[in-house]
Design a protein that fits this description.
The structure holds 2 protein chains of 2 kinds. Chain A has 9 helices and 16 strands. In chain A, α1 crosses α2 and α6 packs across α8. In chain A, strands 6, 7, 8, 9, 10, 14, 15 and 16 form an 8-stranded mixed sheet that branches. The longest helix of chain A is centred in the first third of the chain and has 16 residues. Chain A is α+β, with helices and mostly antiparallel strands. In chain A, β9 and β10 form a beta hairpin. Chain A folds into 2 domains: about 90 residues, no CATH class; about 150 residues, Alpha-Beta Complex (Phosphoenolpyruvate Carboxykinase, domain 3). Chain B is an alpha+beta fold. Chain B has one domain. Chain B is about 55% helix and about 5% strand. Chain B is built from 15 helices and 7 strands. In chain B, the strands form 2 sheets. Chain B has a 5-stranded mixed sheet with strand order 1-2-5-4-3. In chain B, α10 packs across α12 and α11 crosses α12. Classes of the chains: A alpha+beta, B alpha+beta. The interface between A and B is medium-sized, with 24 and 25 residues.
């Protein structure tokens, strides 16, 4: 394709092609600090393309394609080309990756042990991970956490953090502006701005961490911690995994082991500060 | 060289995997995924000298294909249990049949829906038995439903509500309205039994069906995979039975599919390097359009040659139904958009 970039995030090497220069330039900027491996063949291909040649120029609409596609997905305006690229990359991992069990979860690590946070969109798992990642935690990822079926370890997928709505202001006040991508206002997911993880998190992206604590955050309500049984954690994580079924017995074994060996809690919190406090409290008291 | 050409060269064994530059793999992996053949390639190149990350990816795919195949065979077992009670015999078709018979083409082959063949008089009872066993209709559109029942060679697709897997119940192998009418009774009555106790088409019918599915029914989308199936099974069947090609010829003629079967054999020769016996080893100038259609994909995995794709799409409909019916069908579909 006319414009392209290669990016390695965690164990996945992407090849991103685009009919337009802008999304690729924005990606390059966002991922400039990630170690490049240009000789390495791509595991996954993302294509950003115009459905008709004239739609490159005339009311440009970015369709998301690649190895795996969502049929009938609506295109995005060119101003949101970076979001399209991000969605395309997520899609390839979600549907194509088989080496690890994929959890739709954020994760941070400290001392080789991982805190995994799983929740629906809006639960604040991304924001909590981003905030912790600015402290003395290593950000492992805000979207996917990979579980190695053989060892049970968690592996990082530290793509650029996708900050949404209020989280944008909250993070912008704390980090160097050079670590923020362009603001994309009014996307189908609200306002979005990407945050480049800290250099130490990127440098350590291939280092596994032992799952030590599972948290299911819920934004809103009074601060509360509720221990969660293995069964409930298991069911919730099957729903949070994009390849649990495809992995068959290996997925079942990996997930069973994860919930048996890792204490799990539901956490409600009214604001980031109390969320962080509850997470730190649990880490100190209950982490394995 | 295009990634598609490299892919078929690797599958055919004409090219050594070690001769690829690391970045050549980008395109090969991309087009193989687009053709649903990456795990097939991974199995074909097991043990070959590969860049480490490609070797790791291929190992993932081989493992995943094994799981997927076990799941597909389990689905066949579920159908067997559902249909055993009313005593309906059925024959496995396509991917699941290849896996059940442990054919070489099943190594890494992606299997979508479960396809089974029953005798036409059994189809209502089969439908009821499956509905009672937890399958349910996918489409609720009355036109589509009526269309399937009146004109197609299969029931409207059913999906299992707990396992989320589809089953296509066929009573023959080409649409009723197709210009060609294969002998469905012979397909079922001459079926053979696998070691696991499943019925599959006999070796000659299996290749005829494969050719029919690829060349007489569809628009050649995914044709490269079907051609690989055809190539592997005819090669292996002929190795086990020296009279195979003769039987295949007779059986294809009986089903009215001699043209499609011979063309599939020639394409397997041209693309995958199949060795054909005399009588099969001919040349047809029209084959070049088929070869071009089969390889119409660029290094980013995008389908190319839009006019040719369209031509094959129109051809597939032209074969499937007589012109007045086609006009009526397209009109109804268009109004429903």
């Amino acid at each position: 394709m006319r414009h392209h970039a290669r990016i390695a995030v965690g164990p996945v090497q992407f090849r991103i092609g685009s009919d337009w220069a802008a999304p690729v330039a924005a990606l390059r900027q966002l991922y400039a600090g990630y170690p490049p491996d240009d000789a390495r063949p791509a595991d996954a291909t993302v294509r950003l393309f115009a459905a008709r040649p004239w739609r490159r120029v005339l009311r440009p609409a970015v369709h998301i394609g690649g190895d795996f596609v969502v049929p009938d997905a609506l295109p995005l305006p060119l101003s949101m080309g970076l979001l399209a690229a991000e969605m395309g990359m997520n899609l390839q991992v979600a549907l194509g990756w088989r080496r690890h069990m994929l959890l739709h979860a954020s994760a941070v690590a400290r001392g080789g042990r991982a805190l995994i946070m799983s929740g629906e969109s809006g639960s604040g798992k991304s924001t909590l991970a981003a905030l912790l990642g600015e402290g003395d935690w290593r950000l492992m990822g805000d979207e996917f956490t990979l579980i190695d079926p053989a060892s049970g370890d968690a592996l990082a997928f530290p793509r650029a953090v996708s900050l949404k709505n209020e989280a944008i202001g909250e993070m912008a006040a704390r980090v160097d502006a050079a670590r923020l991508g362009p603001l994309m206002a009014g996307t189908p997911k609200g306002d979005i701005r990407h945050l480049i993880p800290r250099a130490d998190a990127i440098a350590a992206m291939h280092e596994p961490a032992r799952p030590a604590l599972l948290i299911f955050p819920r934004f809103g309500g009074v601060p509360a911690i509720e221990p969660m049984g293995e069964g409930e954690a298991f069911v919730r994580l099957t729903e949070a995994s994009t390849n649990y079924v495809a992995l068959g017995e290996a997925g079942f074994a990996a997930l069973t082991r994860l919930v048996r060996e890792t204490p799990a809690f539901g956490v409600s919190y009214p604001d980031s500060a109390s969320g962080i406090a509850l997470v730190e409290q649990l880490w100190a008291e209950a982490a394995r | 060289m295009s990634a598609m050409q490299t892919l078929v060269d690797l599958l055919a064994g004409r090219r050594d995997a070690a001769s690829l530059a690391p970045r050549d793999w980008d395109g090969v992996i991309g087009v193989a995924r687009a053709e649903a053949m990456l795990a097939t390639l991974a199995c074909r190149l097991e043990g070959a000298s590969l860049p480490p990350t490609v070797a790791a990816l291929f190992a993932d795919l081989r493992a995943a294909a094994q799981v997927a195949q076990a799941q597909s065979l389990w689905e066949a077992e579920m159908a067997r249990r559902a249909l055993a009670l009313p005593g309906i015999e059925f024959v496995l078709l396509k991917g699941t049949a290849y896996a059940a018979a442990d054919l070489s083409c099943s190594a890494g082959r992606q299997i979508g829906d479960l396809d089974i063949l029953v005798l036409a008089p059994d189809i209502r009872r089969a439908e009821n038995a499956l509905l009672n066993a937890g399958w349910e209709w996918v489409k609720s559109d009355p036109y589509d439903d009526a269309y399937y029942r009146e004109h197609m060679h299969e029931l409207p697709p059913l999906i299992h509500k707990a396992r989320d897997r589809m089953i296509d119940v066929h009573h023959t192998i080409l649409p009723r309205t197709h210009r060609i009418t294969p002998d469905a009774l012979a397909l079922v009555s001459d079926a053979v039994t696998t070691d696991g106790g499943f019925a599959t088409l006999c070796p000659a019918d299996m290749a005829v069906h494969c050719a029919a599915h690829m060349l007489a029914d569809g628009d050649l989308q995914g044709g490269l995979r079907n051609l690989w199936d055809f190539h592997c099974m005819t090669r292996d069947f002929a190795a086990a039975d020296p009279g195979y090609w003769g039987k295949l010829d007779g059986r294809a003629a009986m089903h009215g599919l001699r043209g499609a079967t011979h063309r599939a054999a020639r394409l397997a020769r041209d693309i995958y390097g199949a060795t054909l016996p005399s009588g099969w080893n001919r040349h047809d100038p029209a084959d070049r359009w088929y070869r071009r259609r089969l390889l119409a994909r660029d290094d980013w995995g995008r389908a190319t040659d839009f006019p040719l794709q369209q031509a094959f799409y129109i051809r597939s409909h032209w074969l499937r139904m007589p012109p007045p019916m086609l006009a009526r069908h397209l009109w109804t579909k268009w109004r429903k958009r």
